[in-house]
Amino acid sequence: MTHLTYLEAAVVGLIQGVSELFPVSSLGHNVLIPALIGGSWASDLNVSKANSPYLAFIVGMHVATAIALLIYFWRDWIRIIGGFFSSIRHREVQTRDQRLAWMIILATIPVGLVGLVAEHAFRVLFGKPILAGVFLIVNGVILYCGEKFRPRASVQADREVAAQRAGTLTATGPGGVPPGAAPAAAHPGPAPGVPGPGQLEDGQQAPRPQAMGDEPVGRQAVGQQAAAHAGGHHAVREEEISLAVASDERLARMGFTVAVVIGASQILALLAGISRDGVTMVTGMARGLSRQDAARFAFLLATPVILAAGVLKVPDLAGPLGNGIRGQILFGSVLSGLGAYVSVRFLVRYFQTRTLYPFALYCFVFGLLSVIYLGVIK
Predict the structure, then answer these.
(1) What is the per-residue DSSP string for 199-264?
(2) DSSP symbol at 190
(3) Where do the domains of the chain lie?
C-alpha cells in the first residue's frame, strides 16, 4: 500500500490550511507541490488516483479547516443559525440573520449539487499537475481583472465601509477609550516648594525602599500591564464583532439572486488551481460588494461547503484508504486547522484595506513556473 509520511502530512497540512482561505487554490497546491517535489511525494500524494490514501488525508484536512472557521466565526454562526430557526418558527424572512441564513443556504445549493454529481470526474480529468498550473495562471488573471475592473458600485461601497469603520473607531477611541474621556488617572506633580515622592527637602533623592518593600509595587505594575493588555485585546475583539455585525447588515440587503450568483461561482473551484474564495470574492465585487464584505461572505459560504465535502467523504477516512496512516492524517489535520485559523484572522483584517493584487501576482508567477518546469524542464 502507498505510504504517507509524517513529513508529507505536516507540509501538506500547513499548505492546505493556509491556501484554503487565501485566494490561491488549496486544491491546486495539493496537486502541484507533490509533483514539483517528485519521487515518493508524487506517488504518495496523487489526488487524481482512484485509490490513493491522499483522498483520506484530504478529508481530514477539510474537516479541520471547517472546524477552524467555525471556531473563529462561532458568534456569527450562532446568530445565523438562530435566524434560520426563527424564520422557520415564524414563517418569515425579515431580520438580518434570517435573510443571511437563507442566502447562505441558497448560495450553497448550486456547488453542492454539482459537487455531488461531478466531483470525481473533475478530480480525475483535471487533477493533473500541468493542468493545475494552467488553472493557477487563470486564477491569477481572474483575481487581477476582478480587482482592476471592479465596478464603480464596489469602489463606492469600499469608501462607505471605510467611513463606517472610521466612525466605529472614533466612537470608541484608541484602545477602547471614548473620545473626550480622561486617560488613566495621572498623579499630579508636587506643589511648588513641596518635595515630590522619593525626594528630600534639599532636592536629593531619597534612599530606595528595601527589596521586600518593592515586591508589592512590582506585582502591582505587572498586574496593571496584564490588565491593560487584556483590555486592549478585548477592545480589538469587540471592534471585530461590531464590524462583523455591520457587514452582515449590508450583506442581508444584497438580495437572494445576487447571493445565488456568488455562490454558484464556487463551482469553478472544482478545477484544481481555481480558488473558491478568490472567485467568490471577485464575483461579489462584480455585483457591487465592497472588498471587505465580499471576503466575509466568501468565508461564510466556504464553511458549510468545506465541512460538507469532508463529512461526505468520511467513509474514505474510516475505510481501507485510511488504514495505516490515521496518525499522519490526525497530525496533518491539526496543522491544517491551526493554519486555517491563523489565516482567517489575518485575512479578515487584511481585506479591510488591501487588495487582491499580491495574490494575483503570486498565482500567475507560481503557475507559470510550474507549467514551465513540469512541461519543459522535467
Answers:
(1) B-TTSPBPPPPPHHHHHHHHHHHHHHHHHHHHHHHHHHHHHHHHHHHHHHHHHTTS-HHHHHHHHH
(2) P
(3) 6-164+244-377
Q: Give 4's pLDDT tier (boundaries 50, 70, 90).
A: confident
Q: Find the length of the chain.
A: 378
Average pLDDT of the residues in 321-337: 85
128 in helix, strand or coil?
Answer: coil
* Residue position matching grid coordinates 482567517: 344
What is residue 126's predicted lDDT score, i.e. its pLDDT?
74
Q: How confident is the model at residue 308 (pLDDT cuts 50, 70, 90)?
A: confident
Report the chain's mean pLDDT, rounded to a whole number.
82
Which DSSP symbol is given to 375?
Answer: I
How does 106-139 read in b/e, with b if 16+ C-beta sit within 10 Å? ebbebbbeebeeeeeebbeebbbbbbbbbbbbbb
Mean pLDDT (whole number) for 313-339: 82
DSSP labels, 301-365: HHHHHHHHHHHHTHHHHHSGGGTTTHHHHHHHHHHHHHHHHHHHHHHHHHHHH--SHHHHHHHHH
pLDDT at residue 168 is higher than 60: yes
> What is the Cα–Cα distance from 70 to 133, expressed in whole angstroms?
31
Residue at 116: amino acid letter: L
User: Count H helices, E strands: the chain?
Assistant: 15, 0
Looking at the DSSP bridge assignments, the partners of residue 199 are 205
Residue 214 or residue 84, greater confidence: 84
**Residues of the chain with pLDDT > 70: what percent?**
78
